[in-house]
């Protein structure tokens, strides 16, 4: 079945205008969801609208990973059997393929800057181990870089054989925190940060910078929203640090993280462009419908100069390919991938149906994982 096609030619206008809903009826809920608002919105929408389980899974997984290369996009997708696969779509043409290894669930896909590798995480159904994989996109030969029973997400191919990711660590108070690590094939992971965040995702690298969305207390500057009522102040969970791409290191780490991109509303889920000069992030207007996230585009100094206003249920985080920004948007019966040329302000789009029946018609990708063949 061919992908739905859109002809969307327009000027990118940054519109933080959201519709529907009364803020006063959800103040209690909004305040409790700070830092993971889109996921909370998925649960809230599912609980109040009576939607089925699969629809709720789609609403959650839209945040699980979206990535793009010159020729391809890929993103996490529920398969209808309580597992998740990774769909791989040609940006030109109707090619659709699916990573859906039998008895595994998959998440957090990310292409390398040159598109020659795809990193992602998988876990066997019923198993405890999570595996970080790096696959050559020309052959789908894959290596397991790291295996752990801890939470594992947001891998990024940083080049030179280095893959950055987030995982949980033991905190000083005995709890669990999240920090950034780097791993190379055949070597043990190396810890890059020590902020013990409550949550940390997504990670991106560009030029000499690394960015991530995070929440925390010990390693973070005090929040301006001291009473955690996020309707009373603007807030950002976006952090940007120096990055040494040659050595996959974070030099000059501050003692406490200070947020960046504190524009009007609540900002989260940052993605850097490959050269580190632009950032796309999700932003919600606290004066309107606070769980509806639009996507904003800004220069590295935080000056917003474009974006999309959400029309469906939710946006994914963005993905840059050169001067083009791509983002996935969830609708009731399909996904819509928007592609914006930031130089010409031309926007185009394509869509894909997300029903389990359609997914069964997609060509499966056979992975050769460390010498063993694996497919759906």
UniProtKB/TrEMBL annotation:
<keyword id="KW-0812">Transmembrane</keyword>
<dbReference type="InterPro" id="IPR011659">
    <property type="entry name" value="WD40"/>
</dbReference>
<dbReference type="Pfam" id="PF07676">
    <property type="entry name" value="PD40"/>
</dbReference>
<protein>
    <recommendedName>
        <fullName>Protein TolB</fullName>
    </recommendedName>
</protein>
<keyword id="KW-1133">Transmembrane helix</keyword>
<keyword id="KW-0472">Membrane</keyword>
<dbReference type="InterPro" id="IPR011042">
    <property type="entry name" value="6-blade_b-propeller_TolB-like"/>
</dbReference>
<feature type="transmembrane region" description="Helical">
    <location>
        <begin position="7"/>
        <end position="30"/>
    </location>
</feature>
